[in-house]
User: Which sequence fits this backbone?
């Protein structure tokens, strides 16, 4: 069985893999709601964090089948604000259906809880990891977020690195251009 926060019996191999590396923090996709209650999720995250001896944050998810989706933050479910987050900008963009102003509102709301941010871009409909436009709103926020101590990672590439975009995405774009 692969690693799952919902199944503590899967953690030992993961812990063993991390033991001889200089890992400072891990982020995990939360399990599906049908797999685990919120209280179990919270307890399991704390137990895993204690076992590993490093912070464990949970990623905000793009749809309501998983914990830490828009629905959970809209309803302010229980003690959700006590759990450290990986704020995935593309997942929030899906919540907002591509409306930049709403993405920015959600981001400001969730930032106090975040310890890491995935800088990424998509079309607001699916997690496509599109190239990040040079004019994207969060470019002006990066220095401030770094000064807050947030861990920033590029989950998709800035457009000026488009030559390094995944080969499958490049092939898809070439096929789309030919079809036009």
Assistant:
């Amino acid at each position: 069985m692969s690693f799952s926060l919902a199944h503590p019996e899967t953690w030992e191999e993961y812990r063993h893999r991390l033991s001889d590396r200089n890992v400072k923090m891990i982020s995990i996709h939360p399990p599906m709601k049908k797999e685990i209650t919120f209280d179990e999720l919270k307890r399991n995250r704390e137990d895993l964090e204690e076992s590993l001896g490093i912070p464990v944050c949970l990623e905000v998810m793009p749809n309501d089948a998983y914990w830490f989706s828009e629905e959970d933050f809209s309803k302010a479910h229980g003690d959700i604000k006590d759990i450290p987050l990986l704020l995935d900008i593309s997942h929030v963009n899906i919540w907002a259906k591509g409306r930049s102003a709403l993405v920015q509102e959600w981001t400001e709301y969730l930032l106090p809880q975040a310890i890491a941010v995935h800088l990424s871009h998509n079309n607001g409909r699916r997690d496509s990891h599109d190239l990040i436009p040079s004019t994207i709103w969060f470019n002006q926020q990066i220095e401030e977020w770094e000064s807050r101590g947030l861990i920033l990672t590029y989950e998709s590439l800035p457009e000026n690195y488009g030559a390094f975009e995944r080969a499958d995405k490049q092939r898809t774009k070439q096929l789309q251009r030919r079809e036009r």
